[in-house]
Amino acid sequence: MAPHTEQLTRPAVQLRGLTRSFEGRTVLDGIDLDLPAGQFTALLGHSGSGKSTLLRAVAGLDHKVAGSGQLSAPERVSVVFQDSRLLPWRRVLANVLLGLDGKDAERKGREALAEVGLKGRERAWPNELSGGEAQRAALARSLVREPELLLADEPFGALDALTRIRMHTLLRELWERHRPSVLLVTHDVDEAIVLADRVLVLDQGRVGLDLTIDRPHPRSYRDPLLGDYRERLLTALGVTEDHK
C-alpha cells in the first residue's frame, strides 16, 4: 500500500547543502534531499559513509551538522536504535511512557504495547525480554509519541534472522497503520528492498543513487522480480553478486 498522493506532496524533511566534517574529513558533502511526508525511505552505505551522521542531523542530535546548511523536520520525531535502550530499573510500561505525562498516557502506552504484540508484558523487567521483545518495546515507546517522523538506526542488526524477518513485518504493518515518514538506516540491501518504497545510497558524502522500489507489499526475499533492484543497489555500493 503506497502513501497517499496528497501526503507525498508535502516534504517532511528538507536538507539543503548539509555538510559535516570530523577532524578534517568530510563525511557529508553538501547534501540536498527531500523526504516526503508519509514515505518509507531506507538509507544504505558502507561503514563510515555517514548514514548515522545524517540520521543524527535529521533527529536534531548533531547541531554542528544542522548548523552547516538548511534543515527542516517535523516537531514530533522518534528514534529507534540498534540497542533497545530500555532502562533496566524501569518496567516495560514505564519505559514506554518515559517522559510522557497526562491522564491518557498510561492508556496510550498499553495500547502501543498491544500493537507490537506485548500485551500482558507491561510489568515485565527489560532483562526478562528477548531481543525481539525488547525492540518491540522500543517501537512502542516511539509510537506512543505519535511521531510524524520515525528514524531507525539499524534497529534489527543485532537480531537473529528469523526474528529480523518478523520485525520487518511488524514495522511495515505499523507504518501502514500510522503513516509516519520513516528513514531507516541499514547495511542490509535485502532489508531495504523488502521494507522501503525508496532507497538512497550514500557514497563519498553524497547521495549516489536514489531508487524507487516499485513493487507491491508484502514483499518476499525470494521474489525474483526484486533482483534488478538488488543488482542496482549492490553496483552502487561497489559490490558484485559474487562478492556479496
Automatic annotation (TrEMBL):
Keywords in alphabetical order: ATP-binding, Cell membrane, Membrane, Nucleotide-binding, Translocase, Transport
SMART domains noted in UniProt: AAA
Domain of life: Bacteria
SUPFAM superfamilies, per the entry: P-loop containing nucleoside triphosphate hydrolases
InterPro entries, per the entry: AAA+_ATPase, ABC_transporter-like_ATP-bd, ABC_transporter-like_CS, ABC_transporter_ATP-bind, P-loop_NTPase
PROSITE patterns in UniProt: ABC_TRANSPORTER_1 (PS00211), ABC_TRANSPORTER_2 (PS50893)
Alphabetical list of Pfam families matching this protein: ABC_tran (PF00005)
Record flagged with keyword S-adenosyl-L-methionine: no
Protein's recorded name: Aliphatic sulfonates import ATP-binding protein SsuB
The organism of origin for this protein: Streptomyces albiflavescens
